[in-house]
Specification:
Strand content: 15-25%
Distance between the termini: 38 Å
Radius of gyration: 20 Å
Strand order of the largest sheet: 8-7-9-6-10
Shape: globular
Number of helices: 15
Mean pLDDT: 92
Order of helices and strands: HEEHEHEHHEEHHEHHEHEHEEHHHH
Structural class: alpha/beta
Low-confidence stretches: 1-14
Number of strands: 11
Helix content: 40-55%
Length: 312
């Protein structure tokens, strides 16, 4: 499955992978080049934040002396995960909630972020996947609307949206991704938790980037968004509060093939300081540079790594 999905890679990563050739030296991380001699393949999913995080990881490994193959940009969630699990790739940043529900098949998320990460780390060890310390970056789902619709309908929480779907069914139209529309921790679960019943004809599935513009235009009343996305601020969207805390914690953390980590334990020391710096504000800023300003994800990652002093 991973091999098939690797062929679907986009932009930043080729199907066979492409070597990273950044001219970087150790800064705060990578002193003494503890990964010299390592050949490491980095993977990611295909959306902006993942491309940036994949580039950050690859650049960190380069600075620490490794030869790095870029296999970022794999479509969907399963492909990059399977690549790491099977050893086709060595590492990538992944989200705790995604691992718990989508990969590990658990139905109930754990509300405490640290406890959620610990549970994932313990459960995934059996699959040959090791999880390093998590970041504060929590890229969870939300629904958002433009300011005109916000004034018109006055909804501020998902409970408000559920109430509106009953009092005025035609008012609630949704723009969502295909994946969100079908995931247990996405639309089906959200509707069940909030007692929301949106007719299928009122739900339009589309690519992530288009959702933001359609919600901003008001073509759909609510668009599925990610809480770390820079377009929320740039498009002045109103985000609905998840007042029942349905959506899981999606804290980004390094997901490493266990055999790779055993062979190169210094990977943890290289990545930990970087992961500690990642939070929602940083993610929104970096994501906006790509999605709003049109910059290249790899360049955005490299600039940030240099600004933070991680590499020179």
């Amino acid at each position: 499955m991973a091999a098939a999905l690797l062929v679907a890679s986009s932009g930043c990563g080729l199907s066979s992978g492409s070597p990273l050739v950044d001219d970087v030296r150790p800064g705060v991380i990578g002193q003494g080049e503890p990964l010299k001699g390592a050949d490491l393949t980095v993977t990611s999913k295909s959306f902006t934040e993942q491309l940036i995080l994949g580039a950050i990881m690859g650049i960190a490994f380069e600075a620490a002396g490794a030869e790095v193959l870029d296999r970022t940009g794999i479509q969907g969630s399963i492909g990059s995960r399977e690549a790491v699990r099977k050893g086709d790739a060595d590492a990538g940043y992944e989200y705790t909630g995604t691992a718990w529900i989508t990969y590990l098949g658990r139905s109930e998320p754990i509300p405490d972020p640290q406890a959620q990460w610990e549970a994932v780390r313990e459960a995934d060890a059996k699959n040959g996947v090791s999880w390093l310390a998590p970041s504060a970056l929590n890229n969870t789902y939300a629904l958002a609307m433009n300011q005109d619709n916000h004034k018109k309908y006055g909804t501020n929480t998902l409970s408000d949206v559920a109430a509106l779907s009953k009092s005025d069914p035609g008012a609630v139209t949704l723009c969502v991704e295909v994946e969100f529309a079908n995931r247990a921790d996405g639309l089906p679960g959200m509707q069940r938790e909030y007692g929301m019943s949106v007719p299928t004809k009122n739900i339009t599935q589309m690519d992530t980037g288009i959702i933001y513009t359609q919600a901003a235009k008001g073509s759909c009343t609510y668009g599925e968004v990610f809480t770390t996305d820079g377009r929320i601020k740039s498009m002045n969207l109103a985000v609905m509060e998840d007042d029942k805390k349905f959506f899981p914690n999606y804290n980004a953390a390094p997901m490493i093939n266990s055999k790779t980590l055993k062979k190169w334990p210094a990977i943890a020391d290289v990545l930990d300081p970087i992961t500690k710096k990642l939070n929602n504000a940083v993610a929104q800023e970096l994501n906006a540079k790509v999605d709003v300003d049109g910059e290249d994800p790899h360049q955005v990652a490299l600039d940030w790594m240099k600004e933070e002093g991680f590499v020179k």
